[in-house]
Amino acid sequence: MSYVFIGLAAGVLSGLFGIGGGVLIVPALIYFTRMRADTATGTSLGALLLPVGVLGALSWWQRGHVDVRASLWIALGLAVGAWFGAQIGVRLPVQALQRGFAVFLVAVAVQ
């Protein structure tokens, strides 16, 4: 049941602010469900595949707030970047992945 609450919170924040759900999902999976960082990362990506992209964007598109051309170019970059990022991530020790994610979150917080 905690997975549903994690997804609900990430979905609301994603729909409101367009933030990557992984900023909430990965730490929540690690903290609340005691999932390993590498498994949390993969699980987050798996969960985000369909509902965020399609349903979230549809609501904004219906109101004329989606630049489809820009979205498609960004999607291309995301697809290639996610593949390369995953290739690097699966080779890293779990501790290095955790530290890298922590550095990322601090950098986001500073901004």
Largest sheet: none
**Beta-strand percent range:** under 5%
Q: What is the share of helical residues?
A: over 70%
Distance between the termini: 33 Å
Rg is: 15 Å
Number of helices: 6
Please count the beta strands (DSSP E, at least 2 residues each). Answer: 0
Order of H and E elements: HHHHHH
Shape verdict: globular
SS-based class? mainly alpha
Residue runs with pLDDT of under 50 for 5 or more positions: none
* Integer average pLDDT: 85
What does this structure look like?
It is a single chain. The chain is an all-alpha fold. 82% of the residues lie in helices and 0% in strands. It contains 6 helices and no strands. It has helices at 2-17, 22-33, 37-48, 51-62, 68-89, 94-110. The mean pLDDT is 85.
Write the layout of secondary structure elements.
Blueprint: H1 2-17, H2 22-33, H3 37-48, H4 51-62, H5 68-89, H6 94-110
Helix pairs in contact: 1-2, 2-3
Kindly summarize this structure in a few lines.
The protein contains 6 helices and no strands.
